[in-house]
Structures are given as structure tokens and as C-alpha cells.
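Long-time lurker, first post. I've been practising inverse folding by hand and with some scripts of my own, and I keep getting stuck on stretches where the C-alpha cells seem ambiguous. Below is the full C-alpha cell string for one chain I'm working on. Before anyone asks, I'm not after the true native sequence, just a reasonable design that respects the backbone. If someone could post their per-position residues I'd love to compare against what I wrote down in my notebook.
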């Protein structure tokens, strides 16, 4: 049970990091009002130009931030029809599927995102979370490893892989990844595992 809660939180935080242009739906009422105004503006833009994939995608990002996953996915579907080679839209729809709890659909979308743009770490990380959440830890470890190969200085990817090793019961590898992650400034797992001697090093 603990892993499930952590995976959801991490998946959401990774999603926000990966798609930094999205708005947070858990902000003050003023921000919620601002998001609604932007949704209305995008609805007008779509009415004027129904072939505007970027407008559908932007509105989907706002819906997703509000937790309106069904609406978000419908808008991402439109955006993908209009722009079928855009890896970012598949990645964003994958996050919506994952946050909605449909890990199979999320894994498929992240896979397509990776196929279209094999150099992006966010899709590997997000698919890794979806696999971990579905209990497929070996596949999760492989995806976090692929992300590390693309960006060896990403402490988050080491932290994520360490969590997957831990949940698989391989504490030796989990500890090694936790220490490496902490060296790179991400000490969540190191602290959780009680590896405090490194927890104060390399703050960015």
C-alpha cells in the first residue's frame, strides 16, 4: 500500500516537472478562476480554428491540472488526430491516463512518445512509474535505467530506480541508487532508507 501512494505522488510530481507549462489545479481560488478564463479563451480559439492542435493540447493540460481527466483525454485525442507525430502530446495524455488510474493506456502512450522521440527522459521516467504502479518492477527498472543512460546526472531517475529495486526486494541495488541520487541532490530515498550520512551533500 505504501508504494502505491508514493507512486501516485511521484508520478504527479514527475508529470509536473516534465510538462512545466501546465497549471497546478490545487492553487488559490484566483488561480482556479484564471485557469477557467484560459479554458474559455482556448474554447474560443478552437471554435475559430478547429484544426489547432496546440489549443486542444493546452486546454487538455489545464483540465488535467484540475483533475478533469476525461475532458483532458478527449482534448488530447483531438490534438493527436491533428498532430499525430507530436511526442509531447502522447506523453501528456499518458500522464492523464496514469493519474486517472489507467496504467495500460498510460504505458501505451509513453511507449508511442518514446518511439517518436527516443531522446526524452520524461517519457521513460513516466512509463517507469506506470510499470511500477502496475507491479511490473523489472520493466520499471529498465525504463529508469534508460532515462539514466540519456541523462546520467538526473538524481530523480536514480531515486526512482532505487524505489523500484526496493519494492522488488533488492536492497543492495536500492541503496546504491539512493546514494547516487543523493550525491546528485535528490535524497528522498536515502532519507527513507536511513542513509543519512550522505543526505546533506550536494544541494542544488
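-- Answer (accepted) --
I ran through it position by position. Result:
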Amino acid at each position: 500500500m505504501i508504494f502505491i501512494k508514493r507512486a501516485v505522488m511521484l508520478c504527479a510530481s514527475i508529470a509536473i516537472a516534465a510538462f512545466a507549462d501546465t497549471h497546478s489545479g490545487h492553487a488559490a481560488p484566483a488561480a482556479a478562476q484564471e485557469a477557467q478564463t484560459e479554458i474559455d479563451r482556448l474554447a474560443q480559439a478552437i471554435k475559430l480554428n478547429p484544426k489547432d492542435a496546440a489549443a486542444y493540447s493546452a486546454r487538455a493540460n489545464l483540465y488535467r491540472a484540475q483533475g478533469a481527466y476525461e475532458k483532458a483525454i478527449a482534448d488530447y485525442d483531438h490534438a493527436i488526430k491533428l498532430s499525430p507525430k507530436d511526442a509531447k502530446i502522447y506523453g501528456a495524455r499518458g500522464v492523464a491516463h496514469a493519474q486517472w488510474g489507467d496504467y495500460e493506456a498510460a504505458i501505451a502512450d509513453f511507449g508511442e512518445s518514446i518511439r517518436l522521440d527516443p531522446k526524452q527522459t520524461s517519457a521513460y521516467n513516466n512509463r517507469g512509474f506506470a510499470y511500477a504502479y502496475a507491479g511490473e518492477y523489472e520493466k520499471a527498472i529498465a525504463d529508469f535505467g534508460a532515462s539514466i543512460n540519456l541523462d546520467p546526472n538526473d538524481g530523480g531517475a536514480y531515486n526512482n530506480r532505487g524505489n523500484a529495486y526496493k519494492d522488488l526486494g533488492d536492497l543492495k541495488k536500492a541503496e546504491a541508487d539512493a546514494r547516487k541520487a543523493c550525491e546528485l541532490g535528490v535524497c528522498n530515498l536515502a532519507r527513507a532508507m536511513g542513509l543519512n550520512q550522505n543526505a546533506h551533500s550536494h544541494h542544488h
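A couple of notes from the structure itself: The chain has a mean pLDDT of 85. The chain has one domain: 2-151. Happy to go over any region you disagree with.
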